[in-house]
């Protein structure tokens, strides 16, 4: 795990500027900092790296890592779970290694020897910057599911790149805002790849390789996908035993580390399934739970059931439900992009607590995407009647100040409208006087699949998982120098689910597969309860801190310019949704002001 920042330019680069930018992400790699500055031909290279040492703690495994034989250099953020098998394959080809078991060196030598096709062999979470001096090529490579971030700012004389957007803001010359993406944020609460809030800075998309030709007089760029989830669609027979074999392999690959590993244990179906699988395969389990002291949200009863059943080496941390403003702002500080979901607060606090003892934690994240566990998936699959569809037409008359109109759109006979209603807030755009049809993410949430259920899974994997879930997990954990490994977010497991029939799915019993896996260990109340999770009562916080929020927004240059009276309009109806809307706008202005 690491954070890195770099530039390649045809002109001298302000190295001190890059050094300052890299210091912003020391939390992503507090164990070792190193850099390379050199001139190759007419090209100036500045590469800065921070390491969080987890695999091969020896200093030989530090980065940037260079191959004398191939004249290649790598910067790598993430973990390669099958690196040992890949290393054996390379050794058989005659490749020698300097480190004992560094996954970074396996990547370096693998890409150097096999070329970019080597990435197709890799299982893991990764953002890679790879320099091929002999061929004047530079590559940026992001993992299939967007678990690790990767940004770039390109022109034909220079490329800035890194694992943190704010670092690129410090390095880049052009940081003007993209008006279109401000509107998209207002509706969705995020900015979808390849876009960011800034015109010149882009995200490398999940499953994408950006190829840059480093010419003597100018650079040129091209992009292509090495992985597309749609390519794996098929209707082969689903075999439960085969599914759990792949799941067990995925769990087993994520246990390896040269530091102690813990498990996030929420007491839910997903994290409990991971713990059970680890124990069944003979692994030691150090589990960790953070729960809230509010009886309304307290799930420690279920956590204790898991701990008792499996006799776990477990640690509890209780968090006060009245989260302080200090904790709120500290959590927001970890965001290198504006991100609206208030669950970032408890996620940050959870990571902060577990990082006091561990560097690595295994989580149950991704189980809902894999097995259709989200409420939006279930509701979207419900067919609409003629009467209900007519009822949905009232959406256009629904006052924007009352909410998103989601409950009306759920009655539509249009699958896309039903699903999108959970993710977007076009009514908030209406309050600002912006045209909703001009500012949406239709291309990212389209449904062209004849298998409706798989269409919904694909939408989650192309939009919600990388842009929201993985974003939150990466930023909140790495801000605390903690690596999260998610066995359900595994390309082999996802490819298997996409390639098989869906006859094992029971809409009336979401995630039946995992519930059956646990049925001998837990009762019906445990398996079929409605999960609350560790929450932050954003509605209460917003309406308690309206003066602070109003001051932040009124002193800004974005939301206030769109509508000076937006807070007054929204607080007329002090509802949950308007509390979340005010929070969304506050997060945007707070982010912009923190970063000048």
Features:
596 residues, Rossmann fold, 6-stranded antiparallel sheet, globular, Glutamine Phosphoribosylpyrophosphate, subunit 1, domain 1, 17 strands, alpha+beta
Structure description:
With 596 residues, this protein is an alpha+beta fold. It folds into three domains: 2-227, Glutamine Phosphoribosylpyrophosphate, subunit 1, domain 1 (4-Layer Sandwich); 233-373 and 453-527, HUPs (Rossmann fold, 3-Layer(aba) Sandwich); 384-450 and 537-594, no CATH class. The protein has 25 helices and 17 strands. The strands form three sheets. A six-stranded antiparallel β-sheet has the order 2-3-1-9-8-10, with helices on one face. Strands 4-5-6-7-11-12 form a six-stranded antiparallel β-sheet, with helices on one face. Helix 6 (240-253) runs antiparallel to helix 18 (491-499), helix 9 crosses helix 10 and helix 10 (344-354) packs across helix 17. The longest helix has 27 residues, at 452-478. It is globular. The model has no long low-confidence stretch (mean pLDDT 88).
| Number of self-contained structural domains | 3
- Name the beta content range: 15-25%
- Classification by helices and strands: alpha+beta
Radius of gyration: 24 Å
Assembly context of the chains: single chain
Give the N-to-C terminal Cα separation. 28 Å
Name the shape in a single word: globular
Helix run count: 25
Most strands sheet: 6 strands, antiparallel
Q: Report the count of strand segments.
A: 17
Tell me the CATH superfamily of the largest domain.
Answer: Aminohydrolase, N-terminal nucleophile (Ntn) domain
- Low-confidence segments, given as residue ranges, are none
Q: What strand order characterises the main sheet? A: 2-3-1-9-8-10
The CATH C-level name of the largest domain is Alpha Beta
Helix percentage = 25-40%
The CATH architecture of the largest domain is 4-Layer Sandwich
Q: Could you please say which CATH topology of the largest domain applies here? A: Glutamine Phosphoribosylpyrophosphate, subunit 1, domain 1
Mean pLDDT: 88
């Amino acid at each position: 795990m690491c954070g890195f920042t770099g530039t390649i330019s045809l002109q001298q680069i302000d190295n001190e500027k890059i050094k300052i930018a890299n210091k912003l992400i020391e939390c992503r790699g507090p164990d070792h900092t190193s850099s390379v500055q050199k001139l190759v031909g007419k090209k100036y290279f500045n590469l800065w790296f921070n390491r969080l040492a987890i695999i091969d703690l020896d200093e030989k495994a530090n980065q940037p890592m260079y191959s004398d034989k191939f004249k290649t250099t790598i910067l790598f953020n993430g973990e390669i779970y099958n690196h040992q098998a890949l290393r054996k394959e390379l050794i058989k080809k005659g490749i020698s290694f300097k480190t004992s078991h560094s996954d970074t060196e396996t990547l370096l030598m693998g890409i150097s020897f096999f070329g970019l096709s080597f990435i197709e062999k890799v299982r893991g979470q990764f953002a890679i910057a790879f320099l091929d001096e002999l061929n004047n090529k530079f590559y940026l490579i992001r993992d299939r599911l967007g678990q690790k971030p990767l940004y770039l700012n390109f022109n034909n004389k220079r490329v800035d790149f890194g694992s943190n957007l704010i670092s690129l803001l410090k390095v880049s010359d052009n940081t003007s805002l993209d008006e279109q993406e401000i509107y998209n944020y207002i509706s969705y609460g995020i900015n979808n790849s390849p876009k960011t809030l800034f015109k010149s800075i882009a995200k490398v998309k999940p499953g994408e390789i950006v190829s840059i030709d480093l010419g003597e007089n100018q650079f040129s760029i091209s992009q292509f996908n090495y992985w597309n989830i749609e390519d794996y669609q098929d209707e082969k027979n689903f075999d439960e035993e085969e599914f759990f074999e792949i799941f067990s392999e995925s769990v087993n690959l994520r246990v390896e580390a040269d530091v102690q590993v813990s498990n996030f244990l929420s007491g839910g179906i997903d994290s409990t399934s991971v713990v059970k699988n680890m124990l069944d395969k003979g692994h030691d389990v150090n589990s960790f739970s953070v729960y809230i002291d509010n009886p309304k949200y307290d799930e420690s009863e279920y956590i204790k059931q898991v701990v008792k059943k499996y006799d776990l080496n477990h640690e509890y941390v209780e968090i006060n439900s009245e989260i302080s403003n200090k904790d709120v702002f500290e959590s927001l500080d970890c965001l290198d992009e504006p991100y609206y979901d208030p669950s970032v607060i408890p996620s940050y606090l959870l990571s902060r607590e577990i990082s006091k003892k561990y560097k690595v934690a295994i989580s149950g994240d991704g189980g809902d995407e894999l097995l259709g566990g989200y409420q939006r998936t279930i509701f979207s699959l419900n067919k609409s009647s003629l009467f209900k569809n007519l009822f949905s037409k009232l959406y256009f008359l629904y006052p924007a100040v009352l909410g998103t109109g989601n409950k009306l759109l759920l009655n539509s006979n249009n699958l896309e409208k039903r699903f999108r209603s959970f993710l977007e807030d076009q009514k908030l755009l209406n309050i600002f006087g912006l045209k909703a049809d001009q500012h949406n993410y239709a291309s990212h949430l389209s449904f062209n699949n004849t298998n409706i259920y798989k269409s919904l899974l694909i939408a989650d994997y192309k939009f919600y998982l990388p842009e929201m879930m993985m974003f939150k997990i990466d930023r909140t954990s790495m801000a605390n120098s903690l690596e999260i490994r998610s066995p359900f977010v595994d390309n082999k497991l996802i490819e298997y689910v996409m390639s098989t029939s869906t006859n094992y799915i029971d809409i009336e019993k979401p995630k039946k597969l995992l519930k059956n896996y646990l049925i001998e260990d837990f009762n019906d109340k445990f398996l079929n309860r409605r999960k609350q999770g560790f929450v932050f009562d954003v509605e209460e916080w917003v309406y308690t801190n309206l003066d602070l929020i109003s001051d932040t927004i009124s002193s800004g240059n974005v939301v206030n310019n769109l509508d000076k009276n937006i807070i007054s309009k929204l607080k007329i109806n002090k509802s949950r949704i308007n509390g979340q809307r005010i929070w969304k706008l506050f997060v945007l202005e707070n982010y912009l002001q923190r970063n000048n």
